[in-house]
Amino acid sequence: MMLQKTMLYSILFLKCPQCRQGEFLEAHPYKFSKMNSVRERCPKCNLKYSIEPSFYTGSMYVSYGVGIAFAVAAYMILLILGFADSPLRIFIIIVITLAVFFPYIGAISKAIWAHFFFKYDPVKAQEVKNDSRTSQ
Ligand SMILES: [Zn+2]
Hints:
The chain is mainly alpha-helical and 136 residues long. The protein has 4 helices and no strands.
């Protein structure tokens, strides 16, 4: 599928930055016991996800921007639906939106952070795609 080759797909669906096929996190972002813990290596291409200790601390800067994007999106939806008439209501809706999406915001922030440092490798992606042993 063509969509699977885009960086956006890889970030939104939390895939490996190098092959864009392997899972990036140990579990679903909403599984709170393992919340947003990044795997040691890509299960498909064996890329080491963490190049140094506390590598993903920097993703907090990214999560700030992602959080703003979610807040703006929530406000836009209120505007379109015509419910943006009271500042208190806007504030409450934005807080609820951030609370609901907070695990996913953290997860895609880590994925974006990883995509800054690891390049997509089409050769490796083709290799793991053709290797049936690594298919999930
Ligand atoms: Zn991979």
